[in-house]
Specification:
The protein is of the alpha+beta class. The chain is 34% helix and 28% strand. The chain has a seven-stranded antiparallel β-sheet, sandwiched between helices. Strands 1-9 form a two-stranded antiparallel ribbon.
């Protein structure tokens, strides 16, 4: 299955949020917008970290099967949130189901279901950059949604990235938690479109 074969779905986005293709131009726009925000907040450290994270994300997008970005565009710079979401297509190993990988997420990554309908698997981690990305940190929230009709062999993987200061205080932690809740709320609106 290719991204073009993904059945139609809907994700309710707040005002100012858009879906863009996962390409170089979208990353460039995202970098510009987040730089505006961090400059307006006098946080060049976060600007630098986010640029590093976005460059790394773009390289991973090229290697993976990322097909969409969700981000804010049509909002004032001071209202832009330092957060982006990607959507990718993943498949089970050797054409098999994703059951083993999902079981490992529950066992090793403290995954849980996002809602009572148990359709979306969710897990998160606070990550620290390595090598050229040393000093950058982020909250990464992941969501896995099986694609209908694939026998749990293919799923959509949504990943929310929230950059964070390397040394955080209580205010930073609270802001990151609020953005994490926003991410959960956005993904909880996911629904497959009914077949025509």
């Amino acid at each position: 299955m290719t991204p073009e074969d993904v059945p139609p779905y809907r994700l309710l986005l707040p005002t100012g949020w858009v879906e863009r293709p996962a390409d170089r131009e979208s990353i460039r726009l995202l970098m510009e917008r987040t730089s505006e925000v961090f400059r307006s907040q006098h946080r060049p450290d976060l600007d630098s970290q986010m640029r590093s994270i976005l460059e790394q994300a773009y390289r991973k997008m090229q290697q993976g099967r990322v097909f969409a970005l969700y981000l804010q565009e049509d909002v004032a710079a001071e209202d832009v949130l330092p957060m982006s979401i990607t959507a990718a297509l993943i498949s089970g190993q050797l054409g098999g189901t994703l059951d083993r990988q999902v079981a490992a997420l529950f066992r090793d990554r403290a995954a849980d279901f996002l809602g009572e309908d148990r359709q979306i698997v969710r897990w998160q981690a606070d990550t620290a950059g390595e090598g050229e990305f040393a000093g950058s940190t982020a909250r990464v929230v992941n969501y896995l949604i099986p694609v209908p009709g694939t026998g749990r062999r293919t799923a959509l993987a949504f990943t929310t990235t929230i950059p964070a200061p390397a040394t955080r205080d209580d205010e930073d932690d609270e802001f990151i938690e609020q953005l994490t809740m926003l991410s959960d709320t956005l993904l909880s609106t996911f629904a497959w479109e009914a077949a025509a």
